[in-house]
Amino acid sequence: MPKFFTEIWQYIVTLWEKSTLAQRVLYIGMIASVVIVFLVLLFLVNKTEHKVLYSNLYSEDAAQVVEILKKQKIDYKLVDGGRTILVPAEQVYNLRLSVAAEGVLHGQGIGFEIFDQNKIGQTDFVQRINYQRALQGELTRTIMEFPEIKSARVHLVLPQKSLFIEEQKHPSASVVVKLKRGRSLKKEQIQSIVNLITTGVEGMSPDHITISDTRGNVLYEPETDVLDRLSATQLDYQLNLQRQLEKRIEQLLAPIVGGPERVIARVNADLDFSQKTIHKELYDPETQVVRSEQKNEENTRASANYGTNVPEPAYRGEGYGGTGTITETNRKTTTTNYEISKEEQQIVAPIGEVRRLSVAVVVDGRYKKNKDGEMVYEPLSEQELARIEELVKNAVGFDQTRGDSIEISNLSFGMETLEGGKSWMEIVALYFQSIGKPILNTLIILLFILLVVRPIVLAILKPKVIEEEEVEEIEGLPEAEEEEKPALLEVLDEETQAAMEEKKQIEDQKTLAIQLSNEHFDQAFGVIKKWIKEEVEEV
Questions:
Q1: Does an H or E element contain 500, and which?
Q2: DSSP-assigned letter for residue 258
Q3: What DSSP designation does 171 have?
Q4: With the C-alpha atoms ordered 84, 86, 91, 92, is the resulting torsion angle positive or negative?
Q5: Which of 175, 184, 421, 447 lies 20 to 30 angstroms, CA to CA, from 29?
């Protein structure tokens, strides 16, 4: 072995022999830590880095990809429940191209790739079933592209075509979706799914499509008559309205009566779900205007002569002479057309209109101590009850013309509600629950310090204390025991002996200085005075 390594080994052995138990434990811990860190670094350096090849794969696609990786003998890892595949980082892109060339990623279910492998001898029935399966799979894959949908199933009923139109049946579809936690579909998204199925399946109409989720909620159903739809939901609407009014009353009165547990409200709403259409034509005779006016004026004049057919003596060709009559006629006609104001109304009464409300409210009173110190019930005053009644009327929209009724009762709910506070044991338990974790952490830290840190510190400091005590014991031995000192010194190690010798020399020098100062006081005083003067000048 070379001399260099020999000296190092000799130094290590000497150091180990001179070290105490605590120091040896420290050396071993340091060496073990260095070895562990070295091994961890070596493992990290030689570890193969894996990256994501594909994520969020369906079980069918993941199985196909794993099969390809096994054939190529590629190291891979499956995480996220087998939905994510990890491969060595340097092979990610090559493997993606290789998998894409195989064309095995199709998504959930079976699509039209079922026809990629034509089998000889398939019947028409099998072909129709395969077509239905492929169409269902393709629709499922498209629907699952919505980010809110976790999974989906599509069921189609495709009847056979008939030669007679009256015997032809319409296809139908049923869709069941599983939504992600805390997500929901909007109306536009639901309508887009309906449109997808309507246009993707030949002969499909929205009236034969239903969509629901796995929680039993109907997201879309065929349109039916308005009254039929209301008959299925009018009870829910009535109950929701009653609950809203009850909650509004209790939240309003809770601060007044001393808490939500001291007020009970119940509402009965009589709703009108009938569908009404009212036609009205109103005429107002007071407001009339001239629409048209027609006036006719007629004047007539006529004359007649009565004679004996004897010409007049002075006839000059003017006709026969005789007696004559003249007739004149004047006639005026006026026609005026008036327009009376007319108002036409077509009123569609709202469905679910409130016909009558019945409200019952029960409130608790007060509890006070009497002269004997007992809790007694004290009802509310009439003014307070009247005020509560007015508040309730305004909260529910009271209308006396509808026949609404409100009843306010003041009854004792029992002293348990007031005095049913938490016991001292429950208070202590809640207190320890709130501060238990910090106290537990503190106790763990203290126990660690007392049981781990303190013994280590004492183990490191104890040898020095023992050495000082041993030195004092050796120096305190009487002169008569001088022969036993060498035997005791032989037990101690070289370092301890050197420390004892050095301390003994210092004590001898101290004793000699004291003896000289006593014998030569003036000289000692001058030396000390000179030292002090030099220190002052240096400062």
A1: helix 494-519
A2: T
A3: P
A4: positive
A5: 447
Render pLDDT for 342-385 as a digit per residue (tens, 0 to 9): 777 777 777 778 889 999 999 988 888 888 778 888 888 899 99
* 21 Cβ contact list (under 8 Å, min separation 6): 459
Tokens 């279910």 belong to residue: 109
List, in sequence order, every residue forming a beta bridge with 343; answer none if it has no partner. Answer: 282
Contact predicate 268/246, CB 8 Å: no
Q: What is the pTM of this model?
A: 0.39
Both tokens of residue 409? 């009762």
Which residues, at least 6 apart from 176, have a Cβ–Cβ distance to it below 8 Å? 152, 153, 155, 211, 212, 213, 214
Phi, psi of 460 (to 5 degrees): -75, -40
Per the document, the length of the chain is 539
Q: How many CB atoms lie within 10 A of CB 56?
A: 9
For 469, the token pair is: 């005590």
Does residue 168 sit in helix, strand or coil?
Answer: coil
Site of tokens 């709703």? 271
Determine how β-strand 209-213 pairs with β-strand 218-220.
antiparallel
Residue in this structure with the two tokens 């495709």, named with its chain if needed: 158
Cβ neighbours for 92, distance < 8 A, ≥ 6 positions apart: 51, 52, 53
Hunting for tokens 């400091």 — which residue is that? Answer: 461
Whose tokens are 């909650």? That residue is 247
- Strand 405-410, strand 353-363: pairing: parallel
The beta strands (E) that lie in 273-404 are given as: 277-306, 323-348, 353-363, 366-369, 375-378
List, for residues 155-212, the tens digit of each pLDDT value: 998 888 777 766 778 899 999 999 988 888 888 899 999 999 999 888 888 888 999 9
